[in-house]
Specification:
Helices cover 34% and strands 16% of the residues. The chain is an alpha+beta fold and 166 residues long. It starts with 10 loop residues before the first helix and ends with a helix.
Length: 166
């Protein structure tokens, strides 16, 4: 097995090696993901590579998945050991998408038990909404989604995309 950026023609080498060793010789080009799976190692999280441990068939990953999960879309943050987008992005994407659907978008105006404010950021892992209250602009409180009332819903990038499709 070998990796290469372009296709490499090893037909003559394979014939020569088969003649010398008098056995069948096979050369297979594998992807960078397959090489990482074969070699193993640890990801940025410190765990064994997902592709080695449990992701048998890597699906397509995209930068949109990284953005949804709150990661900076820079290669040093989103690329795995193989140099491609991390496999775990696609496997965690549905959980982040579900959490985002339950929470108001950043910039929304909401009412809380402590007063009116604007959604400053979302804690997607804990499914909490961080609100900067109008009367305390320097302090941010976190609330459960059921403890807030959305007064004005902010537009999300997905809303803008769907408008462009019309």
């Amino acid at each position: 097995m070998y990796t290469a950026d372009d296709r490499v023609d090893f037909r003559q080498l394979v014939k020569d090696l088969a003649g010398v060793f008098r056995m069948r010789v096979e050369m297979r080009q594998i992807s960078e993901r397959d090489e990482a799976k074969f070699r193993g190692g640890c990801g940025m999280c410190g765990e064994m590579l997902c592709c080695r441990r449990f992701l048998n068939i890597p699906r397509q990953t995209s930068v949109k998945m990284a953005k949804t999960q709150g990661l900076s879309p820079t290669p040093n943050k989103t690329n795995g050991v193989c140099g491609k987008l991390m496999c775990c992005l696609q496997y965690e994407y549905s959980q982040y998408r579900e959490a985002l659907d339950k929470l108001p978008p950043i910039g929304s105006i909401v009412n809380t038990k402590d007063g009116k404010g604007e959604v400053a950021y979302l804690d997607l892992v804990r499914e909490l909404v961080a609100v900067r209250l109008d009367n305390e602009s320097h302090y941010i409180n976190k609330y459960e989604p059921q403890d807030i009332e959305i007064l004005v819903r902010a537009e999300t990038p997905e809303d803008k995309e769907s408008e462009d499709d019309r």
